[in-house]
Amino acid sequence: MRLKGKVVLITASTRGIGLACAVRCAKEGAVVYMAARNMERAEARAKELNEQGYTVKTVFNDASDKDSYRTMVEEVIRQEGRIDVLVNNFGTSNPKKDLDIKSTEYEEFIGTLDMNLASVFLPVQAVIPHMAKQGGGSIINISSIGGLRPDISQIAYGTSKAAINYMTKLIAVQAARDNIRCNAVLPGMTATDAVKDNLSDDFREFFLKHTPIRRMGEPEEIAAAVVYFASDDAAYTTGQIMDVSGGFGMPTPVYGDMIERTDRR
Length: 265
What we know:
With 265 residues, the chain is of the alpha/beta class. It has helices at residues 16-27, 39-51, 67-80, 106-134, 155-175, 193-198, 201-209, 219-230, 255-264, and strands at residues 7-11, 31-36, 55-60, 85-88, 137-142, 180-187, 241-244. Helices cover 48% and strands 15% of the residues.
């Protein structure tokens, strides 16, 4: 019950990592608001959790409607009077169009940056005055290991996540005087529907060859890191960029080939 009494707002939380965060935060005693565009799906998820004895509510948010970030925050404040934890989980990319520097259209590049950066900047800008007034809070940005490790594709997605990592540090510095902490969690390859639908088996196998913990992460494992940053256990922790990727990219660049040869013996 590390989050007992806290109000937690999570964007894009009806499936995948966002849903895992909602479930884990609810189990830790929080009042959880699932922010989503598909309210029918959100309400169904909330009903399931409420029937298990947790306190989960819904609020509308559409990433394509930038004003909805402000109204989302205002609605939770209207109902609860406070927001203790904000989890910015939304992120988007089109792997079929978000390619390398030679092949990606500028409109695709700038559109992805606009969506992904707005999904952090706008809700944080909206929530900070309320957190400052109540005496503090915790902001957690779900970034990506792709923001640390340059890739041969998805130039827009990687650039946007790198920017979110830096923005996390800026927010941490600029909001600290109001007792507001800001940290980021960087998932590696995680077993979500989006990964299963968009990445080929060959790519997943290649990626995991370079991951010392040789499996995909589970959404619940990302949620565990989120709960840490949300809780008072992290009261003196801010501006941190936590890699939760099974060690992807940490070893020598020839690690994958070396492991493959070892496995053949």
